[in-house]
Write a structure and sequence with these properties.
5-stranded mixed sheet, 12 strands, mainly beta
């Protein structure tokens, strides 16, 4: 088992200026290259008491998106991944009222599905086309591109920003 060493709040700012919203997340037209460990389980998903493990490859079978953000730890560039709403729908969690996400460091958040959809919560699986290593908050982290300016300015809560996600549970 890996040591639980990461914090639980993630602050991002948009690199580009202008309004924040749906236009900041763009569809990917070509599949990303897979790596040898792409089939290793990275996230447990629980729906109705049934648990399954999914891999990076499983996640990236969904429609891939990208967004360009700068993090408060100095990482600037393009993140690739999927909308959390797409993942929830694909794995039977879309009809639930909430998703419970648990990070490697035991930080947890409960997210309303309506917020996940309307705010286009973004589950990042890659940075600049490469899998995100654990020591860089990976292998998956939740970004909220529509809230990044407000989060940076202190007008939005940072409670829902979570990285090194290891479990997702559907709740009613």
């Amino acid at each position: 088992m890996l040591a639980r060493i990461y914090g639980s709040v993630l602050l991002l700012a948009l690199v580009a200026s202008g309004p924040v919203g749906a236009a900041d997340i763009t569809a990917m037209t070509a599949p990303l290259a897979m790596v040898a460990a792409a089939n290793a389980p990275i996230v447990k998903i629980t729906v109705g008491g049934q648990t399954r493990e999914i891999s990076l490859a499983d996640i990236e079978k969904l429609p891939l998106k990208q967004t360009t953000l700068a993090t408060n730890w100095g990482t600037k560039g393009t993140w690739q991944g999927v909308l959390l709403a797409d993942l929830a729908a694909a794995y039977g969690m879309g009809a639930s009222g909430q998703l419970h996400l648990l990070a490697l460091d035991d930080y947890a958040v409960d997210l309303n599905m309506s917020d996940i959809r309307s705010e286009q919560a973004f589950l990042a699986t890659r940075f600049e086309g490469k899998p995100i290593p654990l020591e860089e908050k990976g292998p998956v982290l939740l970004l909220w591109p529509s809230q990044s300016e407000a989060a940076l300015s202190g007008t939005a809560s940072l409670a829902n920003w979570i990285w090194s996600i290891v479990e997702m549970t559907a709740k009613n």
